[in-house]
Design a protein that fits this description.
Layout (H helix, E strand, L loop, with lengths): L2 E3 L2 E6 L19 H12 L14 H12 L27 E6 L2 E8 L17 H9 L12 H20 L3 H6 L2 E8 L3 E6 H5 L10 E6 L12 E2 L2 E2 L4 E10 L1 H4 L15 E9 L2 E4 L2 H6 L3 E5 L2 E5 L28 H5 L11 E5 L5 E5 L4 E6 L8 E2 L21 E6 L3 E6 L7 E6 L1
Helix pairs in contact: 3-4
Length: about 450
């Protein structure tokens, strides 16, 4: 499926918890066989690039792309899987709208995060997005950074909610208190996240109350790695080792929200997420098919309700943001800047040394690669995009490449033979611009 064009090879790659009651959450929509065939045809038969004085994309072709993008069926709701599953992995948990993983050749949706369309994310370590930074900003007269998208009233309300969540975490500092109050341990400590102690009464009431989280998250107090299942609550008493409370977390069933993204915390960067194909149990924490999960002794959940973490423990203030899925200060302690790479889901067929990038929240960024080495770009957003060479003003593009329209979950591969910097953009969203640096 590859074709050489002026030293460039381009190819569109198209390959074809908690506990029991939460399994009642909604299921996602799936595409029909006819839709799948149509999508594969669209991917395999990407239109030939047309070059003119304005660059490789003329107005006629752009119009065709807009029409083609309009035929791609969106997900049924904010919480649903895309209308058609891809045939390879892609996305990064906590950073992209969709995450797809592979298990022995089968592609599974792992995560859906945030509302459809453009999300507001506050995960840049240079932005004041952690709990302590937001509190300091609210207490000061400093201007609120534009990327937060908060008014002064919004900021004050958000900090008040986070203070209530922090007070709840402090109240349950001793797991005995949580056990006595009806919380139950999932007995598994997830890396950079912790162990979930959940309260079924709060989960079932269907309400969001910042000071009454459905989940309290704990880690081993000595910061070491867990060795097998951790303890559990027995008769209202914790029977395991010493733990430290690090976060509050919340659950809202999708039948309460109608599948729409929750409006809970003040502001727009509280991106709630929905798990799919989750396997949980004592010492079991994975994404897998139902039969594999059960064989491993886990409980399988096709999907859960909306969930979100709030890192409100001052001792574990999170540079990735108060609502980040991951906290690099917890076991295994890591550099915040390296977290995205570590949690990125790559196609199983892709060699480890090949560059891989997932489009995240209508953003491309900069990609580093070497001459002649493939770069694979996955669309992990909720809408179709293109990867199209940018023509400098008054000149020609350094390279003539164009992915055509590719849908959520699809991937595009390009090989650049000559060193240099190559600018590109999305023809459907021209403000999306990126650079590939080839050494």
């Amino acid at each position: 499926m590859g074709a050489k064009t002026r030293g460039i090879q381009i190819r569109l790659l198209v390959p074809l918890a908690i506990v029991g009651v939460v399994a009642a959450a909604c299921s996602g929509g799936g595409g029909s066989g006819a839709q799948q065939h149509q999508q594969q045809q669209r991917s395999n038969d990407s239109p030939e690039v047309v070059e003119n004085a304005e660059g490789i994309l003329n107005s006629k072709r752009l119009g065709e792309y807009v029409d083609e993008a309009a035929t791609i069926v969106p997900a049924e709701s904010d919480a649903a899987e895309p209308s058609q599953l891809p045939a390879s992995a892609g996305g990064a948990s906590g950073y992209t709208r969709y995450v797809f993983r592979e298990y022995e050749g089968q592609v599974l949706t792992s995560l859906v995060e945030g509302p459809q369309g453009r999300q507001r994310r506050c995960q840049d370590t240079t932005s004041p997005c952690s709990y302590e930074e937001l509190r300091a900003l609210a207490a000061s007269s400093d201007p609120i950074p534009e990327e937060l998208g908060l008014s002064r009233g919004d900021l004050d309300e958000l900090v008040g909610q986070l203070d209530a969540a922090s007070a709840a975490v402090a109240h349950y500092a001793d797991p005995d208190t949580a056990c006595a109050d009806g919380f139950v341990s999932d007995r598994t400590q997830t890396p950079n996240m912790g162990s979930h102690f959940f309260n079924m009464d709060r989960i079932l009431d269907g309400e969001f109350v910042a000071g009454e989280p459905e989940i309290i998250m704990y880690v081993r107090a000595d910061g070491s790695a867990p060795e097998g299942p951790i303890g559990q609550c027995r008769n209202g008493v914790w029977d395991g080792e010493e733990l430290e409370a690090v976060a509050a977390a919340y659950i809202l069933f999708t039948n309460e929200t109608g599948g729409s993204h929750p409006e809970a915390f003040a502001g727009d960067f509280d991106n709630w997420h929905v798990h799919y194909n989750l396997c949980r149990g004592p010492g079991v924490d994975s994404i897998s098919p139902r039969d594999v999960c059960r064989a491993a002794g886990g409980t399988y959940y096709k999907t859960l309700g909306w969930m979100i973490h709030a890192w409100v423990s001052p001792e574990h203030d999170n540079d990735l943001g108060v609502f980040s899925m991951w906290n690099p200060t917890l076991w295994p302690v890591t550099d915040a800047a390296a977290t995205k790479t570590r949690v990125t889901s790559r196609p199983a067929s892709l060699p480890d040394d090949e560059a891989f990038f997932s489009i995240s929240n209508f953003s491309f960024g900069k990609i580093q690669t070497e001459a002649g080495e493939p770069v694979v770009i996955a669309n992990a957003d909720s809408v179709p995009h293109t990867v199209t060479a940018r023509t400098p003003r008054g000149g020609k593009a350094k390279a003539d490449f164009d992915s055509g329209v590719f849908a959520p979950g699809e991937t595009y591969e390009i090989v650049l033979e000559k060193p240099g910097e190559y600018s590109y953009f999305c023809a459907l969203h021209p403000d999306m611009q990126g650079t590939i640096v080839v050494s």
